[in-house]
Model the fold of this input.
Amino acid sequence: MPTLDFKGKQFIYAHHLTVPFRKPEIDTEKSLTGENPPSLDDNLIIHGDNLHALKALLPVYAGKIKCIYIDPPYNTGNEKWAYNDNVNSPMMQAWLEKNSPIDVEDLERHDKWLCMMWPRLHLLRELLSDDGVIFISIDDNEVHRLRMLMDEIFGMGNFVANIVWHHRKSSQNDIDVSLSHNHILCYALEKSEFSFNAGDVDESKFSNPDEDSRGPWVADPMDAPHIRKNLMYEIINPNTGKVYLPPAGRHWRFSKDKYEAALEEKRIIFGKRGTTKPQYKRFLSEAREKGVNIFTIWSDVGTATDGTKELINIFGRGQLFPTPKPTDLIAKIIRISTDKNDIILDSFAGSGTTAHAVLALNKADGGNRKFILVECEDYADNITAERVRRVINGVENVKDENLREGLDGSFTYCTLGETIDTEGMLTGDTLPTYETLARYIAWTATGSKLEVKKARQEDYCFGETKDIRFYLIYKPTLKFLESNKSALDAKRAEQIAEECKAVGKKAYVYASHKFMSQKELTPLGITFCQLPYSIY
Done:
């Protein structure tokens, strides 16, 4: 498969693996949870670098996100975005220092944009469920490079669609060709596992002029594109005796046997008067069951101007955010790709349109969809989160009744805490909570979410998979970690081995030290992992 090469790729190729883990820290004052305490199980708005935020989400949400929508910088040269990932390469750091923030004068801005996107796309892929899908808004500046990047990371076979959004309906007079479209690239994690929810049927096209007991119907053509020799038979109009063959370059839509069965079922008609070419009756009941296919050109979901007007209606003042997406656009993406209890992630949250769309859909159909937003800029609180607060509580003087009364819901606002680092654990300067460390250990060991339970004090078991039980002998104090109580000794090892043998599992035991060799532990089915070194 052809791949895309770009400056810096060798340095960021595995960068997503080296990003340190940081615990989301709840900010109670900026959260909106009503009478309930803020929780990481709630809708989330995270203020922080999205690369670190995505890594922080992995222990809990890996393989759990059904739909991801992102609207990254389009890299037109006018955004003046900064690439500030801490890549441990002197050559990389020297290169990046030449031009930051990145603007139109930077001739290597495309390489830097690709360096920025590469690790984020890898982490986003880790978060998707098996039947999950990602949508990425982009324009002509980077769409061709993004396609190749996505082909490499997600696989060519998982490309679903390039949706063209008619985002501008007014003419641009300052350029020769007025730009009126953006792209939304869509890739599935596993295309065989993903399917769109069908759109609603236009029932106005169905009628029942002959009072068919099967209900309203519409007459569909009997022919279909291309030539298939096995579908090139004669059809005789029983009323006139006229013989019909498929039009040039086309074939009948199904075999002669199926045609004769449909004729017997009175599903074949020959026009209103019975004197024309054959047509096939398709009933409304069938159309409702199947739904309508998704088209790749979208002109009915609002424009960029509509997105700006929505923001002005909510905040009651002028331009707050450049080119916000209209709620109808994101709502359609969510509607066609998720069910009512799915999780939607937006790691370039901007003005918070994705959360607005999720809440509006939940209000409309009684769903329980959940959103996670990540925004790195300073406006994460006063624009991103503030918009969500206002649409939850209600916005005065807007036409939409639901929005005026409030969309209901809640969210927990978070920042990113200190990293879990080896040196900090050795000195005791940064000791994570038991639950935080347990979740991270589970992620690094299994690559997926593990339901972390409260550890039993006698053996420190905090969770298990089909084959392995996990033990973490730990308390977040240096005094405990330096004491004999934190060690894996013979008595504790025998107890763990006996428990695991009874259920046919092996054990991973994480502790600061042990009083037995691994040679002694292996026959007991125990693998020792020393803290803090083995957590990576």
Observations:
- The two ends are 32 Å apart (CA to CA).
- The mean pLDDT is 88.
- Residues 497 and 523 are 9 Å apart (CA to CA).
- Residues 9-198+294-417 form a domain with the Rossmann fold fold (CATH 3.40.50.150).
